[in-house]
Amino acid sequence: MAGKTIVGTEKHERALRWMKNEVQSIKNRMGYTFPEAPGGTYEPALGNPVADGYLLQSTAAGVRSWQTLNQAAVAGLTTADSPAFVTVKCSGLTDGYIPYHVSDAAGLANSPLTVSGGYVYCGSRLYLNGTGQVFNITQAPTDPASGITAVSILTNPIYTATDPKSFYAFAVNNRPIINTGVSNNSTQAGAIYNVFRNYYQVGSDDSGTLTNLHAQRINYGHYDTNTSATPQTNFAYGLYILPYIKTGAIGTMADIVMAADSTGGSYTYRYGIRQLNSGWNYFGGNLGLGKDATGTPDGTFSLYVTVGTPPSNSHGNTFIMYGADIAAGNTAPHFRTENGSIIRLYRQAHLADEKTDYTTGDLDTEAEIIAAINATNTKINSVLAALENTGLLAVA
After folding, report:
1. In angstroms, rounded to a whole number, what is the distance separating the alpha carbons of residues 31 and 43?
2. How far apart are CA 337 and CA 344, in angstroms?
3. pLDDT averaged over 10-residue windows placed end to end, the chain, 396 residues
4. CA–CA distance from 92 to each of 95, 100, 113, 155, 353 (Å)?
5. How far apart are alpha carbons 259 and 236 in whole angstroms?
6. Are 304 and 323 contacting, i.e. CB atoms less than 8 angstroms apart?
7. Residue partners of 94: CB distance under 8 A and separation at least 6
8. How far apart are CA 64 and CA 78, in angstroms?
9. Are strands 303-305 and 287-289 parallel, antiparallel or unpaired?
10. How far apart are CA 392 and CA 396, in angstroms?
């Protein structure tokens, strides 16, 4: 029976004292012809199989020899052992794929994960399910190359037929459930981005200069890889927020909130929003400066300005608008011009009308003429005073 292999030993003591009846039993079952040495020991010329674990191998010509199989590990090997093998080879698998255990009967099979060029690729959906911190990537590289990305998602969907199909390269779905009678006084978030200097470790040397620090950067629109292509897009939004208020009640809802600073350091310039392009800004609702939604403003497309600290400095080629009280209960718009002049827009008190129905005989005397002129000049002076009070005329 050329090519068959049998295990020559299970334990040292048993391999050393093989008896004829055991050899004869194997001969009868397997159809082998075993030469026997005097004393009933097995084929001494091939060596002593008791030293370690061996396989008895027979060639097509009937030449038999002992073949070792990790001798130190196989001797006395049981199912409770965990031997270490330098190389494990599995047939029936594809190069580059990371295998996974299907079942005890089926063994290993190709998984959707592959390894190529130092990268791990997933050819199917990657589903993480668990509690606590399910997926954690920790990196602390020293002098990494430019453009290194800790997590990169690259997709290239191609559509060859007209079909309303959406595609999302990255999606975060957090669906918290708070049972009846339960209060959660913490925060639920879809994503958190923390990008800090001087945070990594105590005593680290972090006193150098960085040009740009972005918590999140969004690049979008049309690129020019194919210079002959002319893509058409109806609407392109760098940030699109779609609020939902379908059930229940929400106390305060704000699409964008910029919280108060955590102070201790310093800055040269501080902006809440800074627009560097010349694009148009559109507000479909009201705009409040120092004014929140308390009281439910009933205007539309309106600017609400609350009294604050009036500016004390002027700026080149700039006027400043702010709100200030003319008197208690009468806040009015104020403007500080580039030269420091203050203009106030508010309604003045009514000025009594002067006589305009003079007829023949009303101004017959010099005294009547003088009185009429004085009354007119007084009214003019009242108008001038009102204009000076608003700042439209300089005070003499």
Report:
1. 17
2. 11
3. 45 48 56 48 46 54 59 54 71 88 89 89 76 72 84 89 92 93 95 91 87 95 97 96 96 93 94 94 89 77 92 95 94 95 92 87 89 93 92 88
4. 10, 13, 16, 31, 107
5. 28
6. no
7. 110
8. 26
9. parallel
10. 13
